[in-house]
């Protein structure tokens, strides 16, 4: 089916297939969501080769999040929860906003000093997670989601998505403000 979009005086014509879009959103949600959930379960439970909560708490403490255990627990639970919500397409932009919050903290507190690319432990991976999450928050979870099945589509309105994204960004920044790195 062809849709025409008029932007100012320019007209763009693109073929849009809603089934293909819904399928693409499903694939993106499942991959991004399940990987983030696994990432959180590495920290929380030590699954998938992770170090578990005690070691993660020590890392958080060394990064200036003191006491380390509560910060590590909240971060890991947020990663797990956000991943599950994203994978299921449940509660609109809430899962993506939670994902963005923890990725802001990871990017700034762990990865930023190492540059861009993952090869040098740079911000590439948290940036990809956060960007994917933002894209899903802005597009909505799609037709193949629990939101669509149970009628929660209004949660993916532009206004709700904008508010959720703003709260996620502010949550990540707020977490960084309570960080107390050791004096150099």
Structure description:
- The chain is mostly helical and 184 residues long.
- It contains seven helices and two strands; from the N terminus they run ββααααααα.
- It has a two-stranded antiparallel sheet.
- α1 packs across α5 (124-139).
- The protein is elongated.
- The chain starts with a strand and ends in a 7-residue tail after the last helix.
- The model is unreliable at 1-9 (pLDDT under 50).
Count of alpha and pi helical runs: 7
Q: Please tell me how large the radius of gyration is.
A: 18 Å
Spatial sequence of strands, sheet with the most strands: 1-2
Average pLDDT figure: 92
Largest sheet composition = 2 strands, antiparallel
| Beta-strand segment tally | 2
**Residue share in β-strands:** 5-15%
- Report the order of strands and helices: EEHHHHHHH
The global form is elongated
Task: Kindly state the percentage of residues in helix.
Answer: 55-70%
Content-based structural category: mainly alpha
Uncertain spans, ≥5 residues at pLDDT below 50?
Answer: 1-9
The span between the termini is 61 Å
Brief summary:
It is elongated and about 55 Å long.
Looking at this protein, list some descriptive labels.
184 residues, two-stranded antiparallel sheet, 7 helices
List the helices and strands and how they pair.
Layout: E1 2-7, E2 10-15, H1 18-45, H2 52-62, H3 68-88, H4 94-111, H5 124-139, H6 146-150, H7 158-177
Antiparallel strand pairs: 1-2
Helix pairs in contact: 1-2, 1-3, 1-5, 2-3, 3-4, 4-5, 4-7
């Amino acid at each position: 089916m062809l849709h025409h979009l008029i932007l100012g005086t320019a007209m763009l014509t693109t073929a849009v297939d809603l089934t293909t879009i819904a399928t693409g959103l499903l694939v993106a949600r499942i991959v991004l969501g399940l990987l983030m959930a696994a990432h959180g379960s590495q920290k929380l439970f030590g699954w998938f080769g992770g170090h578990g909560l005690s070691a993660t708490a020590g890392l958080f403490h060394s990064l200036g999040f003191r006491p380390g255990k509560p910060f590590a627990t909240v971060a890991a639970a947020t990663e797990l929860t956000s991943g599950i919500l994203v994978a299921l397409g449940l509660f609109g932009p809430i899962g993506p906003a939670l994902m963005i919050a923890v990725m802001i903290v990871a990017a700034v507190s762990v990865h930023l000093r190492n540059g861009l690319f993952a090869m040098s432990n740079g911000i590439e991976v948290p940036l990809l997670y956060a960007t994917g999450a933002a894209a899903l928050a802005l597009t909505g979870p799609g037709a193949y989601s629990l939101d669509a099945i149970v009628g929660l589509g209004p949660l993916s309105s532009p206004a709700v998505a904008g508010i959720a994204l703003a709260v996620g960004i502010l949550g990540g920044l707020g977490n960084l403000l309570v960080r107390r790195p050791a004096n150099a």
